[in-house]
């Protein structure tokens, strides 16, 4: 990992910890594993342009684990989502991600009053689809200004499953 990437990971890490500590289950139930599913992504470089392909690099305690594309799932033998940090990469895009804003929402949490991005379901609709062991991980990459119309926290949406079915190896 380059020095600059290392510092990015560290800064994103502190953001994630801040956002998780308020409203996250953030603990694996059993058997000490978490499954991440990259569930949705809707972001453009500007109105009317095509959707950006956002790839997500997953780090555990600053060590690279895997790169996720939309619809990918990753089974992680870890105790807590808080061990993870993320880097977001735009491919085939004319713009770059801003400093990420990250938020974890459990099913009973208060939902930010934001509409669904483009043709994507709203945060409330996505939250309603979760079971009791699941949480939503929401990321805004277009702006750091919560008053901007681009601020929807749905540029990357992951489902955190705190009680996944163990991966069978035989
Ligand atoms: Ca956005």
Short description:
With 170 residues, the protein is an alpha+beta fold. The protein has helices at 3-23, 123-128; strands spanning 34-40, 53-60, 63-68, 73-76, 84-91, 101-105, 134-140, 156-161. A five-stranded antiparallel beta sheet has the order 4-1-8-7-6. It has a three-stranded antiparallel beta sheet with strand order 3-2-5.
Layout of helices and strands, plus pairs?
Elements: H1 3-23, E1 34-40, E2 53-60, E3 63-68, E4 73-76, E5 84-91, E6 101-105, H2 123-128, E7 134-140, E8 156-161
Antiparallel strand pairs: 1-4, 1-8, 2-3, 2-5, 6-7, 7-8
The structure holds calcium ion.
Quaternary structure classification: single chain
Secondary structure class reads alpha+beta
Identify low-pLDDT runs: 1-23
Topology order in helix (H) and strand (E) letters: HEEEEEEHEE
Bound molecules: calcium ion
Number of helices: 2
Most strands sheet: 5 strands, antiparallel
Question: What portion of residues belong to β-strands?
Answer: 25-35%
What is the average per-residue confidence, as pLDDT, rounded to a whole number? 83
Strand order of the largest sheet: 4-1-8-7-6
Distance between the termini: 34 Å
Give the proportion of residues in helices: 10-25%
Give the strand tally: 8
Label the overall shape: globular
Q: How many individual domains?
A: 1
Radius of gyration, CA atoms, in whole angstroms: 15 Å
């Amino acid at each position: 990992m380059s020095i600059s990437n290392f510092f990015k990971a560290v800064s994103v890490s502190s953001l994630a910890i801040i956002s998780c500590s308020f409203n996250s289950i953030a603990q694996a139930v059993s058997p000490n594993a978490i499954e991440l599913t990259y569930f949705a992504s809707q972001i453009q470089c500007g109105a009317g342009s095509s959707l950006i392909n956002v790839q997500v690099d997953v780090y555990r305690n600053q060590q690279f684990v895997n790169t996720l594309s939309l619809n990918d799932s990753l089974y992680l033998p870890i105790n807590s989502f808080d061990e993870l940090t993320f880097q977001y990469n735009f491919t085939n895009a004319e713009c770059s991600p801003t400093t990420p804003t990250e938020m974890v929402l459990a099913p009973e949490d208060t939902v930010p009053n934001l509409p669904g991005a483009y043709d994507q379901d709203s945060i409330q609709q996505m939250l309603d689809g979760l079971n009791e062991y699941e949480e939503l991980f929401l990321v805004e990459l277009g702006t750091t200004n919560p008053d901007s119309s681009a601020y929807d926290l749905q540029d990357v949406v992951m489902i955190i499953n705190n009680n996944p079915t163990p991966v069978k190896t035989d």
